[in-house]
Amino acid sequence: MEYRSLSELRPLRLDTVAAIGGLAIALALLPLRLFASQIYLNTVPLVLGTACLLYIAALYQQRDGESYPRLPESVTMALPSVVLVGLTAMVLLPVVQGERTAAFFGLSSVVATLLVGQILFASDRTFDRGLLLLQIVLFAFVFRFTALYATPGFVGIDIWTHMELASAIREEGSLGAISHDKHYASPFYHLLVVASSLLFDVSLRLGLYLSVGIVMPASILLVYATTNLLVSDRWSVLAAALYALASHVSMWGIHLIPTSLGLVFFLGMLYALIRVMRIEYTFRDFSLLLLLSVAVVLTHQVSTFIMLVLLLAAFVAQVVFVVGPFGLTRLDPDVFRVKKPVNLIGLVVFNFGMTIFVWSLTPYRQQSFLATVLSFFTQTLEESAGFLNIASGSTGGGEAASVTDPTLLEQVLPYIDALGFLFLLGATFAGCLYVVHRRRAEQSVFTLLLAAAFMLVFVMGMPMFGIHTFIPTRWFAFLYAPMAILGAIGLRTVTQNLSPAFVVSCLLLFTLIYPGAMVLAVESNADNPVFDEQHERLAYDEAELAAVESVAALTGSPDGSEIRPDQRLYTDHPYQTVISRTGAYPSTTTATVPNDSVADHEYVVYREAQSTRAVYFTDESGEGRITQISRDQLCRPDQATIYTNGEVTVCTPSPATA
């Protein structure tokens, strides 16, 4: 191991300046934790500072071709069989236990760790790209489809609304069935589900699983293909694995809504975009890019906005390399093979114009979608925007709120949920520093860097100012694509110059923590949370779904306008969403249960999960909180029971007291 002199380091080199600047930013952000309590304020400065220090250390050290230790060939050859056995057990466990339990997620963590370990520690001789990609895709299929198999209905909240829309289209045989809804102008998801159900002659549920359900895990290969345009097979396969394991990516493979299909088209567009920047493209390549961008617009509004951010990043990258400070020359030894920047102004103008046109015609809350979104954004800026106004966007779906001091688990749990993201973020920072080197920089990698940076502004920056209009939780799965690519490049950077012992330590730490952290994150197990007393379950059993059908039969599923305010039905969140969104009883909302007291509602629905799991109620001040209640706190003794199946009970005013 040799160390470079300060003169060799050239401190004013762009990547060196960026690393030092990143370290300074990390130090400047540290005091913010004194003014607000938020997980990213507490962790991101540490992650950024660590990544910058590692990169500076990699610049300072110089390794003479010495590679870090790899696994013995016999172990590498045996691991695929071990993974296959693990995948088989992952299939059998939900079949035997009836749901994805903590044992399933523990086993999944082990299998995922073995997968990442193979990629990082297999020798060049035994590294098999095809076999590893097969294992990654099989893991993605098994992890997602076991959740779909074990859930009687659907996983998630919005899915019930979309299935109602698809059902209306199928029954009427016309898109006009949803002309009142914002998805009327972006119907590709609903048409695909209906077409699949008719083509295979199955229910809409199976049609959804046979179309969007299958495409979602298969789309992981697009991340591999995109990364392979930039770096070698090992790191391309690693990027695919990092993306496949990401928690929000898993969630949209289970909660199958237009966001899921929009994500697939986004990945295809990202591949096509990087491809035209990396090769001497033809009209066919650019036509594919244009077609995929139109598909996104016709699928999902949030996905469309994220796509526009990606295109904006690509355009800014073009400007940087046309008029910016990067003096690129074909004589520079460059790992990314520099080529002339691609002119994207026409594509950007076309997509912005088409988006504005479609959104102007999209109905949404008695206005166009564009007008409504602009109104929401303006209202947010006027009423709730402000520096460190983090709480303004809180909703009933995050950390458990409690009037008492939080337990140790409640304090640690947010960090467990975010741990995988933070590890990938650190690798991404290192990858960003690598690609800003003057001889490595080009339009394609700068597009990834700027796209990740812009998305992080929407995901973490704007919520810090109380701006949640852009639904930041929907952005993570899209953000993970450039992060996985840059993260793989970042880990590659760590292995190049640092000492073998230190490299092994870093890679081993990443291998042991990242897969398990992503599997245990709440987004990966929304169907049956590992920490079920802190996170709500977004799936229902047979008895709970049967009760929804019974509520519809008992009430006749009246239209919302026919229900008086005093006839509103109250229950917990999220159970109230499935009752209202299926049309069983549209006027259903979250019950108000005061602390250590009883609810004062006439029509209520109690289920056993309210006494055993994490569900949301509102307190007397109207704040949502996770709590557990007894049956008598919601269904009072003076009320009448008009329906019960042993698990769910519907209570109404008693005739004797009416």
TrEMBL record:
Record carries keyword Transmembrane: yes
Source taxon at top rank: Archaea
A single GO molecular function term of this UniProt record: pentosyltransferase activity
Statement: the UniProt record of this protein carries the keyword Nuclease: no
Principal place of residence: membrane
TM annotation in the entry: 12-33, 39-58, 78-96, 102-123, 130-150, 207-231, 251-274, 281-299, 305-329, 341-361, 412-436, 448-471, 477-494, 501-522
Record membrane topology: Multi-pass membrane protein
GO BP annotations, alphabetical order: lipid biosynthetic process
GO CC entries: plasma membrane
Entry's localization field: Cell membrane
Keywords assigned by UniProt, alphabetized: Cell membrane, Glycosyltransferase, Membrane, Transferase, Transmembrane, Transmembrane helix
Protein name: Glycosyltransferase RgtA/B/C/D-like domain-containing protein
Organism: Natrarchaeobius chitinivorans
